[in-house]
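User: Protein folding is very new to me. Would you mind checking the protein record under this note? It all follows right here:
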Amino acid sequence: MITIIGGGPAGIGMGVLLKQNGIDDFIILERDQVGSTFFQWPEETRFITPSFTAHGFSYLDLNAILPDTSPAYTFGKEHLSGEEYGEYLCMIAEHYKLPVSENTQVHKVEKREEKKYWVQTSEKGDGFFSNSVIIACGEFQFPKRPFKYGIHYGDVTSWKEIEGDRIIIGGGESAADAAYHLNKEGRKVDVYYSAKQWFDIEVDPSRTLSPFTRERLESTKALNGIFEHPMSRAISVEKDDEKDMFLIQFENGDVVETKWEPIICTGFGSGAKQFKELFEWNEEGLPILTEKDESTQAPSVYLIGPNVRQSNTIFCFIYKFRQRFAIIAEDIFFHHNLPRNQEVFEMYKKSAMYLDDLSCCEKGCAC
């Protein structure tokens, strides 16, 4: 038995690969519904990675989770909404008849017998044994909330519902997205972030704002409603009930008052933290993995999705972490003596969905 925890792009993509190899003894456990993270995105949020139909030239859609599918083809759009991408995942799960158990909360995973794990699916202790466990929990449903007050990006249903001029704390993609949409709604926005500049010059798109985001921010400059405050690290957000104001304390001693509760864009945590006892953790709060994305202290427990880090390589985009599905599958098949379909693995290699040489990720650009 192979257990996949999470029904997002990582979990569904991994499930399809197992199915394509003729593996039937597996299950995908999802605490809500397939693609639930994407259905919870703010209404206006769009994918920053563009979708495009280039299969005929051996280039897979950046947001596809398996060869021979393309969100761009399905929806006729480059930058999908969360709801559209959630529908894409649901269609794949239905098409491949994946064994998904929705509305199933995993309470605990613990080793009880040699080479077997007990997956507990109820508060009463009910569950089942599994030979391998693949954690595919993602990040969006685990927002980082460092302050007492503040509306986290992940709490927003639609930016149209946010009243008044706002202060945004954070300098990443979510902060830029919030600033853009609020400014479009006619709101004055002040963005406070700890870096020296918003647009860090990095080759790796995981370490800087995307071209899509930069382009959108440029388009709002004429509105003159977004004001940047670099080198401003917020350390607390409190409320003065007498003044009916929110007080934002900064590391340099400055205090800023605002009538409206600030928007918190401090990112999201690792979904693997639900099972923290299964992993070793580094100083950045990320799981330490083997070169096969396996836990260093729990054999046959693997991690897939945006939480995966290998040395300096960040796998936080779909087009990145989908390249590790086959690596994990190969390792599981080898250790448990399971059959593999070589043609499937060749197809994944041809589609750039098989990355075993991480040295190719460290690239620079001449211009």
